[in-house]
Amino acid sequence: MESQTINAAEFRDAQQQQWDKASTGWKKHSDFIDRSARQISERLVELAGVKPGSRVLDVAAGYGEPTLTAARVAGPEGKVVSSDISEGMLAYGRERAAAEGLDNIDFVQSAAVALDFPEGSFDAAVSRWGIIFDPDGEGAAAKVRSLLEPGSRMAIASWGPPDRVPFLAVAVKTVVERLGVAPPPPGTPGPMSRPTPETIGGLLEGGGFSDVEVEEAEVTFEMASAEEYTTFVREIAPPVTAMMAGHPENAQAETWEAITAAAAAYAGADGKVAMTNLVLLASGSA
Fold this sequence. Notes:
By secondary structure, the protein is α/β, with parallel strands linked by helices. Helix 1 crosses helix 7, helix 4 packs across helix 6 and helix 7 crosses helix 9 (249-263). 45% of the residues lie in helices and 21% in strands. The protein has a seven-stranded mixed sheet, sandwiched between helices. Strand 4, helix 4 and strand 5 (148-159) form a beta-alpha-beta unit. The chain has helices at 8-47, 67-74, 87-100, 137-147, 166-179, 197-206, 226-236, 238-244, 249-263, and strands spanning 55-58, 79-84, 105-109, 122-128, 148-159, 210-223, 273-285.
């Protein structure tokens, strides 16, 4: 993939800064995201075979999902390690866990490839729209596989292709058209870098997982207005804001206005915007 030419260390450093900044937006919108995507977290936990007493690793867990979902299932006899490169996102994950009284979670700041645990430390692993951001996804998957008990399963999620993921595509397409920014080359690490069953399944297979299966699901984001959509994307989606970086402030402001106008195409008579998005879930055995 073209993403192999990326300097992995520099890419992760940039992502860490972007996600630290975005952590305030995820805190603001977390209830909305949880409601909209709860079924994805629950299905990932199910596909990974998490049960009471499980030792679970969540890779690139962000603000703590599917971490919290897995912790509820694993129960007091189980343990979840929630890992991410962004301390800002992890800090909010800690807040969420404390508020819910979940004390079976350890939060660890680390890239997946740098996780430092003995082999066989876990018997399930999950990653919701997380590992797909790693510049070496297959290497990250291989590292996770080495930490799993043989036969354990990992379950991960990716967004589908742009034409099936309007909540991201509307904004990205508008930025490309308004600012003349080239879209990320195919395979560039990010939310839609693994948009097909072959590419998302291939991430696990490339990491040495076997019996890989891929299924489809949907997430619908329903917002009060097109303006609310724009605020949501602006505050939680670093890949979109990064595309605008370096352009004059007035050009960026005009682009956000154009994004709002484009989102209005998804509004009903009452002005509410609803966008249904394709999610791919892949799972495999260590």
